[in-house]
Amino acid sequence: MADIEHASERTAPGPTIASTPSRRSAQPAEAGGTTTIADSVVAVIAGIAIRETDGVHSVGKGASKALGAVTGRMSASSSLSRAVKVEVGEKQAAIDVDIEVEYGMPIHELASQLRTHVSDAVETMTGLDVVEININVFAVHIPGDDSADDSADTGSRTR
């Protein structure tokens, strides 16, 4: 830790007030130390940016998505940190995400928009350089066809 002068260690009695501003005080001195950003923080930032993008129906798949739907008790940040996988280094981050897209959305354009929006959000909020964003489109959502997943699981087919 840096040496910090305590009030009891002052050499002059009472507070010292400078009568003229110093040139050094015009720019604040940068304090030393480290900042650590957890993977889950980056995952939540990325997940929110993904959900804000038109054309994305849902984020995450499988167990993380089902667990959030069943329990109903998962916070948004908790479910996003499970749905978006990240690796955070000292200065860089890599992001993997599974999404379900809306039918009719050009997937290649959506992926490009996602990479830009997610990268901007993460870099702005954390200062980390986003080196890659891997997008796995696992499904296409067809409006009005929300029960299709249920019937597909039962294995019933019309012959």
Automatic annotation (TrEMBL):
Region entry Disordered, spans: 1-33
Coiled coil: none
One Pfam short name: Asp23
Top-level taxon: Bacteria
UniProt record similarity statement: Belongs to the asp23 family.
PANTHER family: ALKALINE SHOCK PROTEIN 23 (PTHR34297:SF3), HYPOTHETICAL CYTOSOLIC PROTEIN-RELATED (PTHR34297)
Protein name: Asp23/Gls24 family envelope stress response protein
Protein species of origin: Streptomyces aureus
